[in-house]
Specification:
Layout lengths: L2 E2 L9 E12 L2 E13 L4 E5 L6 H8 L7 E6 L2 E2 L5 H11 E4 L11 H9 L8 H7 L15 H13 L5 E5 L7 H18 L2 E6 L10 E6 L2 E7 L12
Parallel strand pairs: 1-3, 4-9, 4-10, 7-8, 8-9
Antiparallel strand pairs: 2-3, 2-5, 5-6, 10-11
Helix pairs in contact: 3-4, 3-5, 4-5, 5-6
């Protein structure tokens, strides 16, 4: 078992200690995560890299409060998140976490601005929705509906929606997976700029090995287990990424 939970002496934002997640598929039990121990530090860009079925999405759902552990412990700022009840987990998702999905999940009959406003109405200390759109360079598209936007623009609206909550943690599920090469690099640049400007902790899950070069750290996963954690001493610029 690879144990990275104590690999950094700083106070982590999130800490997984011996985490297991098992799903029941009829009479069969499927182990999606096994003895995962990992510390995620404040303000870092962490990439979780692995093939389909490696446990990336399972771990993302656990740290995002969308699912609960089967065994082990999960901590958020030294609070045992794995012991929280559904109400407390809902509050955590609402106030502390922003989600960016591969297929945008925008509401089709709302404008770009209205899609962002939906998120700000649910949290305690939101950013101005217009400011959030400006950060992703879409202030001039605020009144456009998703069908009137390109794929890259829709993804940038989804990023604006996520950061408008002022979350401590931004979770990205294959954020470049549905985009072409050049647009994907623009989204990566946007994420890095937001991390540097806002100090947000960002976790990206992907099967694209090329993206790993932009991360502060890369977590390699296989069959639900962490096999390696490597630190990039000099992360590359998104503009240098080739896939």
């Amino acid at each position: 078992m690879f144990d990275n939970s104590q690999a950094d002496t700083r106070n982590p934002l999130l800490r997984l200690v011996g985490v297991d997640k098992t799903f029941a598929m009829g009479e069969v039990r499927v182990r999606a995560a096994h003895q995962v121990s990992l510390a995620i530090q404040p303000g870092e860009l962490l990439v979780m890299l692995g093939p389909s079925g490696s446990g990336k999405t399972t771990i993302l759902n656990l740290v995002g409060g969308l699912d609960t552990v089967t065994a082990g412990k999960l901590f958020f700022r030294d609070q045992e998140m794995s012991a929280w009840n559904p109400t407390r987990l809902t509050r955590y998702r609402r106030d502390s976490v922003g989600f960016i999905f591969q297929f945008y999940n925008l509401v089709p009959n709302l404008t770009a601005l209205e899609n962002v406003m939906v998120a700000t109405e649910l949290c305690r200390h939101p950013m101005d929705p217009v400011e959030a759109l400006a950060k992703v360079e879409l202030a001039d598209r605020a009144d456009h509906f998703p069908a009137q936007l390109s794929g890259g623009e829709q993804q940038r609206v989804s990023i604006a929606r996520a950061i408008a909550k002022n979350p401590e943690l931004l979770l990205c599920d294959e954020p470049t997976g549905a985009l072409d090469f050049e647009t994907g690099k623009r989204v990566l640049r946007l994420l890095i700029d937001l991390k540097q400007e806002l100090g947000t902790t960002i976790v990206v899950i992907t099967h694209n090995t090329a993206i790993a070069g932009v991360a502060d750290r890369v977590v390699h996963l296989r069959s639900g287990e962490v096999t390696e954690v490597e630190r990039n001493r000099q992360p590359i610029a998104p503009e240098e990424v080739v896939w």
